[in-house]
C-alpha cells in the first residue's frame, strides 16, 4: 500500500490549566477544533474547504480560530439578537463573513443550512454542540484533569454549565474513560435558559419559546437529544440557578481569582458560593476535591461586570466568610 500523502494536521487546542482555588474551596466547604481537524483529514490534501458555524458564542469563536489557524476560511451566521460585543469579537477573530439572519439561533441555523451551504459546494457545517467529534474533543479536558490531579487522586465531582450539551457530553465521555460511570457530574443552567432541566422534568425534550436569561451563551432553545438522554444517568444532577446567582459567581470569582468570566460560567461557580453544593452533595468534606469547568469568558467586559454588580449586588448571596476576599468586597445584603 502506498504511503498516505495527507500532511500531518496539527492539534488546534491548548492544554487546559487546572487551578486550585482556595477561596472557592473555603466558600463551598474543547471540541469544535477537533471537528474541524476531522473534516480536513477526511478530505484530499488542499481541498478548498470553507467552514460555517451558526453559533453566536464560544463555539463560533472556536470555529473561526481553528479554521484560521489551519489555513481555512470560516463564516458565521447568527441571529439579529446577537450583541454588538460578540459581533466585534467574531470579526476580530478573523471571520470571513459575519451574517445576521432571523430572530434566534434556530432561524440563523436554518438559513445557514438551506442557503449558505447550498450555495457553497466546499462548505462544511460546524454545529455548535451536536456532533460526536465535538464531544470527543471536549472529553480530552478530563484527560488533562486526570493527568494534572494524578498526585492527589480522582475528583469527587465535576461541575459544568450546560447550553446545547456539547461540553456536557464530552465531559461525561472523559469521566467514563478516566474514572468510570459513577463520577458525579453536576450540570448547571440558569433560569430562562434551562431547556435541559425542563426536559428532564417533563420526561421529553422541551423547546423554550425564548431565552430570557442574561447567560445568553447557554441560550439553546432546545438541548441536544444526546444530552437529554445522558442527563438521565444516575450520576448526573441537573441544577438551575437564578441570573442573580450566576452574576454573583462572576464578580466573586473575579475578586477571588482575578479572572473575568461571563454568567454562563458564573452559574457553575455560583453553587460553590451560595451553599447549594453542600446541599446537593452532603457527603463532601473539606478534603473533597471538586472540579469546576470554568468555560466562557468571551461575552463579558468590565462594564458588564460593573452593571451586574449594580443590578444584583446587595442581594443575599449565600456563603460569607471573612477569609474569602469576595465576602469582604461583596455589598451588604439589602433589607
Describe what you observe in this structure.
The chain is of the alpha/beta class. It has helices at 22-28, 32-42, 58-69, 84-93, 105-116, 132-148, 166-179, 195-202, 225-230, 243-257, 263-273, 276-280, 302-312, 325-329, and strands spanning 50-53, 74-78, 97-100, 123-126, 157-161, 184-190, 236-241, 290-292.
Structural class designation: alpha/beta
Proportion of helical residues: 40-55%
Instruction: Please summarize the sheet with the most strands.
Output: 4 strands, parallel
CA radius of gyration: 20 Å
How many extended strands? 8
C-alpha termini separation: 77 Å
Number of distinct helices? 14
Strand order of the largest sheet: 3-2-1-4
Q: How would you describe the shape? A: globular
> Mean pLDDT, rounded to whole units?
82
> What is the helix/strand order?
HHEHEHEHEHEHEHHEHHHEHH
Which stretches are low in confidence, meaning pLDDT under 50 for 5 or more residues running? 9-15, 21-29
Beta-strand level of the residues, as a percent range?
Answer: 5-15%
Summarize the structure.
The chain has 335 residues and is α/β, with parallel strands linked by helices.
Write the layout of secondary structure elements.
Layout: H1 22-28, H2 32-42, E1 50-53, H3 58-69, E2 74-78, H4 84-93, E3 97-100, H5 105-116, E4 123-126, H6 132-148, E5 157-161, H7 166-179, E6 184-190, H8 195-202, H9 225-230, E7 236-241, H10 243-257, H11 263-273, H12 276-280, E8 290-292, H13 302-312, H14 325-329
Parallel strand pairs: 1-2, 1-4, 2-3, 5-6, 5-8, 6-7
Helix pairs in contact: 1-11, 2-3, 2-6, 6-7, 10-11, 10-13
